[in-house]
Amino acid sequence: MKLSIPYAFQFLERVNVLAQYYLNKDNTYFNKTISVLFCIGLISMSTVDTTAQITLIASNNTANKGETIDVPLQITGFDNIFSLQFSVNWDTTVLAFKEVHSFTEALPQFTADGIGVEDITEGKLIVIWFDNSLTGIDVADSTEILVLRFEVIGEEGTTSSIAFTNEPALIEAVDATSTILDVEVIDGEIVVPGNTTTTTFLQAQNGMRLFQNHPNPFYKNTTIKASFSTAEWVLLTITDTYGRSIYEERFRASNGLNNILIDTEQLTVAGTYTYTLSSGTHQLSKQMIVVPQ
C-alpha cells in the first residue's frame, strides 16, 4: 500500500518536532536518533502497514500513598523491528516520577539515553529506541522492555492511568524493511486503595473471595484464584467491554482455595475482559487483559 504525499510530509513533520524537542539536548544518542528517523521518513514514503503487529502493555497495580511502585512496560509482536518510539502519560496529582530502570538487554543500546524527561512535571515521558546495526531486532513476546518507578502521592480512592499516547512523541514502529507498522496499546492503571476501591482480592458477605488472575496480561492461559468458606455451586462469567457474555462455566467449588484455568480458546480476541463469580445473591468481579499471540 502506497503512502500518500500528505502522510509522508506528516511523518517528516513528526521528525522535525522531535528535532526541535531535543535541539538543546547535548546527547549523541538523540542526535543519531533524529538523523536515522529522518532517513526512515524518506525511505518509508513508499510503504506502510496498517495491520496491528506490535502491542505495548502497561501493568495494573495498587499502592498506598507514600509507597514507591514499579510499572513494567511489556511488548509483544516485536519481530524484525528497526525503531520504536512512544510517549507515556500519567496523572501528576497521583504519581510522582522517580526514574526509569531495568532496560531490557534484548534491545541493543537501549539505555536511559533513549528517555526524554523534559516534560516529566506534566506527566509526560518519551521513549525512543533504534537498531544501530540497521538489521532489525526480534524480542520475545511479553518481554519487559523497561520499568517506570513512581512515588504514590495521591489520596485514598484516587487512580492514575499509565497511558501510551502521541504526546509529546507519536507512537510509531518501523521494521527493517522501512515499513511503518501500526501499534496497539493496552494502558495500565494505578489505584490508591480507599473505602470504595479494591486491593488484592474482593470479598463478599458470604466469605467468597475473588483474586486477581495471574499472569495478567496474558496471551496463552491464566489462573483465577477464588476461595470459599463452604463447598457450593458457583457461576463464572466472562464478558467483553460491551457487556456481552463470552464464556460461562458453572462448577462445584470446594471449601478453601480454588484455581480456575482460563485459556485463549475461550477468549479469542485481544482486549480487556471482566470475570465475575456468582454465588447465590453474591457477585464479585475483576478485569483481565488478553494480548495478541
SSE ordering: HHEEEEEEEEEEEEEEEEEEEEE
Question: What global shape is seen?
Answer: globular
E-strand count: 21
Mean pLDDT: 81
CATH architecture title of the largest domain: Sandwich
Tally of structural domains: 2
Q: What is the CATH topology of the largest domain?
A: Immunoglobulin-like
Low-confidence stretches: 1-11, 21-26, 28-36, 42-46, 195-199
Highest-level CATH class of the largest domain: Mainly Beta
Strand content: over 45%
- Distance N to C terminus: 25 Å
How would you describe this structure to a colleague?
The radius of gyration is 22 Å and the shape is globular. The chain folds into two domains: 5-191, Immunoglobulin-like (Sandwich); 201-290, Macroglobulin (MG2) domain (Immunoglobulin-like). The chain has two helices and 21 strands. Helix 1 packs antiparallel against helix 2 (28-43). Helix content is 11%, strand content 48%. By secondary structure, it is mainly beta.
